[in-house]
Amino acid sequence: EWGEQEMFADRPAQVVAKVAKKLMQSSGLFALRYILNCACVSNTNALLQICQLVFRCCARGSARTARDYVEAELNFTFAWGYWYAWTISIFTIGVVMSTF
Fold first, then answer.
1. Are 83 and 46 in contact (CB under 8 A)?
2. What is the per-residue pLDDT for 6?
């Protein structure tokens, strides 16, 4: 076990190359499904904000004071940086996979 860790610690580029080779040998169906799920399902889920709607319903039901009602109606902060990076990474994967 220790010898394996030392082997991979010395050559991280070789490990990355082995993983890339293994992924490129697959049929491509997994990659296609992954990209479609990331592009469609994840973005739709983020836009619907189901968790926020459930939280608001629970917060309204358990609110006791006027301040609780106001806090129950506040929107969550939208993570622009996270979703921008997510979209760029999916775009990059799509471009890279389509060139091979």
1. yes
2. 55
